[in-house]
Amino acid sequence: MFETDRTDILISALRDYLRDAAHSDEVKQEIAEAFYDDDITFEELKDLVGHEEAANFRLLKEQLTDKFVDEVAEELADS
Predict the structure, then answer these.
(1) Which of 24, 29, 58, 74 has CA 20 to 30 A from 64's CA?
(2) Residue 68 sits in which domain range?
């Protein structure tokens, strides 16, 4: 009868909803936190907020690593 099962339809609808909701700053923050906590992948992040925003979140995540924070703390202590 149908080539697509209900699960696929629900997943597609949820992705569409989240993509639309991702324009809200509050929702974007929740999505970013999920990415920072490794609950979602970069590809999933990109699907939700778009490539440019996802790239910004990925850069920020890299900057928030312990090594980076330690380096900045040392630079601040030396100045």
Answers:
(1) 24
(2) 6-78
